[in-house]
Amino acid sequence: MKFKPADDAKDTLWGPLGTPERDAMEAQLKEEIHAYFVGEAIRKARLQQKITQEQLGERIGVKRSQICKLESGKSSMTLSTMGRVFRALGFATATLDLGSGGKVNLW
User: Which one of 48, 89, 97, 107 is most buried, counting C-beta atoms within 10 A?
Assistant: First the structure.
């Protein structure tokens, strides 16, 4: 049985580094990872407050299924939606770190 390095498999599936297909795949993967971590933060904060997905949804005016999608990272979230969710969870402020571009207060 022959094993291939993971990098070779990625090159075969999505093309070598620097190609449009590979860049698009890596960008999509990054978005999905970020959505997952934001969803986990929402879930953790909700559970710490001992509220259900339905209760959080009622606070921001959406159905439980939408909260489920946000927590699982299966739904993209706008900054305004993110603001509504985190404010409903009691986060008074949030800052977006733009690296060398500085920091921006979101709410």
Answer: 89
